[in-house]
Amino acid sequence: MKADPIGVLTGTHFFDGDHACCEGALAAGCRFAAGYPITPSTEIVERFAQRAPLVGGMFLQMEDELAASIAIQGAVWAGAKAFTVTSGPGFSLMMEHIGFAAMTETPCVIVNVQRGGPSTGLPTLPGQADMMQARWGSHGDYELIALAPSSPQECFDLTIHAFNLAEQYRVPVLVMMDECVGHMTEKVVIPPASEIEVAPRRYTRLPRGEYVPFHAGPDGVPEMVRAGEGYRIHVTGMTHDEQGFPAPTVEAQQKLVQRLVEKIRRNAEAIVRYEETGVEDAEVVVVAYGITARVARRAVELARQQGVRAGLLRPVVVWPFPENRIAELARRVRAFVVAEMNLGQIALEVERCSAGNAPTVLVPHGGGAVHHPEEILEVILAQARTEEVLR
Amino acid sequence: MSAPVEAPLAANPVEAVLRSFRMPHIWCPGCGIGTTVNCFARALEQSKLNLDKVVVVSGIGCSGRVAGYLDLDSFHTTHGRAIPFATGMKIANPKLTVVVYSGDGDLVGIGGNHFIHAARRNLDLKVICINNFTYGMTGGQMGPTTPVSALSSTTPFGCFEPGFNLPHLAESAGAVYVARWTTYHVRQLAHTMGEMLRKNGFSFLEIISPCPTLYGQRNRLGDGLAMMKHFKQQSVLRHGAPTKEVGIELQGPIAVGKFVDIERPSFLDVMNEQLGRTLEAEYAGCVKDHVPD
């Protein structure tokens, strides 16, 4: 279905990524946000608090991130589309409720405008060191989806996409921004509502009695209801049977957790999204995401100018990871160079997917500023040369 | 000659509100939680509310399992976070009657911060707290309500920190309705729960309840029946008592009754009034208008 025009600020704007993210949420139909103030994410909810009452929504400032990340889930089960936004320390506090959303299949969006960590770290400066926490941070086995915008325009586009994926697969979807993308101001084009595709919630049409709340369809995703409609559902974070009631057995655990994981793994090829520049003939492929992808693009250009066939692969959806594409490229490229604002997270994933067929070289950065293109360039050139010597 | 006619079994008067197919429940013999559920079921029946619009939200622990036994839309959330979940739900659809039903450790231990902020906001939530003075599900550890000198698995030489006076905490934080009964007071409980279902604003009921398996046995308070008798003997009816005076000590008197019943504009009343006044015709209403009945 198309977006409700009331929430769509059609036009050409000069927005920072935080404001663009807010407009993306409103365009996607989000009408409830809860949050706790934390730099550098506050501009998102400040704008939401300003805009929401005009479009039939509201912002609720909660007492902490634990509260914010579960209040949105209460709102979702009442029928709203909802999100919360945070950064490092707040993201850590939200981990339990990411697991709750995964377990109860509550479609919701959590935005993390990453800053330098650990702990209080660098509150006003960028980081990309929460990427593995995004994937593995809550306890137990589960799968979710995480996106990494690299421009204010993408903060708008991918926030809409995040809401759509959340509804389609009934999972928490993480928008892994970074402080640079959140605070940089660029042109953001918001199309007319009639051009914005919005996924509706997958409500059941079955009557009470026939409806089985956690019985999944062929794609592994069950249909939903909201509170107050007479279905008298039970929703629990405990291991549950298809009716939704606690079932503390080995069999129920295996069946449920397997389905929660497989509904993403089996659909991974449909969810995965990446952008490639100059990869077709590349001997060295740089993998980078978020703000770092923009620096890496410059490094790739400089390498090309020096006659090295370099390319850039930018995961737009980071989780699930584009593992088939990496595996494929590993069989023909000389090396992967992974540039990221951490001391090695997605690099591990590239290394895993390349399965020994091509080396993975990390260009780390501790956070607080972006890489210099030359730092990445040097590694690209070194890899190109190394391979020549070996031959 | 006709066969003798068997008298039909008397139907459980609250059957319709319970998920009988989930029985037997998980609670120990002598536990008071089931008694409170019976009282709540009666209050629901008598309320004449459309039960399709009543939601129960629980946290984690023995009392957290209440949600699963009531035939309502029910949500068994995370430890301590029933109140913020309920907060999001109520604001997203104010037409719902949202009841939070959980234990003392859940609501005022791990969830204490949410409890005071919800009372401050005065959002229309009905919070029922089963207080058994201990963490039952995990084996009887001391908690935020354990009285000084009481034995628990983590205070083997007696508790040496004072427990919360919950009615005082609730009133101080802003609750508009505060009451306490024990599981002995079944009629009063049903009556109070009925009043809470009609009250607009943050209302709070503390129910003193026996945990004979852990708290009772360790503190030599006898079985469930003996603990109920003890509650009966120790209860002192004190409607309107200053909440500052109703703290509970080990083996001491238990003040019961309705302590607070005042009017104060609820969160949604204030929000709608203020946004309407400031934004005038631009105010599009809160989320409820986008949720069909």
Corresponding CATH superfamily of the largest domain in chain A: Thiamin diphosphate (ThDP)-binding fold, Pyr/PP domains
State the helicity of chain B in percent bands: 25-40%
Could you tell me the radius of gyration of chain A in angstroms? 21 Å
Mean pLDDT of chain A: 97
Shape of chain A: globular
Q: Which CATH-level-2 architecture of the largest domain in chain A?
A: 3-Layer(aba) Sandwich
> What is the radius of gyration of chain B?
20 Å
The count of β-strands of chain A is 16
Largest sheet of chain B: 8 strands, mixed
Class inferred from helices and paired strands of chain B = alpha/beta
CATH class of the largest domain in chain A: Alpha Beta
Helix count, DSSP H or I runs of 4 or more residues of chain B: 10
Distance between the termini of chain B: 57 Å
CATH topology of chain B: Rossmann fold
Q: What percent of residues of chain A are in strands?
A: 15-25%
Query: How many beta strands in the DSSP annotation of chain B?
Result: 8
Trace the largest sheet of chain B across and list its strands.
2-1-3-4-6-5-8-7
Could you say how many structural domains of chain B there are in total?
Answer: 1
Structural class of chain A: alpha/beta
List the helices and strands and how they pair.
The complex is a heterodimer of chains A (391) and B (293).
Chain A: E1 11-16, H1 17-27, E2 30-35, H2 42-51, E3 58-61, H3 65-77, E4 81-86, H4 88-93, H5 95-104, E5 108-116, E6 122-126, H6 131-136, E7 145-147, H7 152-169, E8 172-178, H8 179-183, E9 185-190, E10 234-236, H9 250-265, H10 268-271, E11 274-277, E12 284-287, H11 291-305, E13 310-315, E14 317-319, H12 323-330, E15 335-339, H13 346-354, E16 360-363, H14 373-390
Parallel strand pairs in A: 2-3, 2-4, 4-5, 5-8, 7-8, 12-13, 12-15, 15-16
Antiparallel strand pairs in A: 1-9, 5-6, 7-14, 11-13
Helix pairs in contact in A: 1-2, 1-7, 3-5, 11-14, 12-13
Chain B: H1 33-47, E1 54-58, H2 66-69, E2 73-76, H3 82-92, E3 97-103, H4 104-110, H5 112-121, E4 125-131, H6 166-173, E5 177-182, H7 186-198, E6 203-208, H8 212-218, H9 224-234, E7 235-237, E8 254-261, H10 267-279
Parallel strand pairs in B: 1-2, 1-3, 3-4, 4-6, 5-6, 7-8
Antiparallel strand pairs in B: 5-8
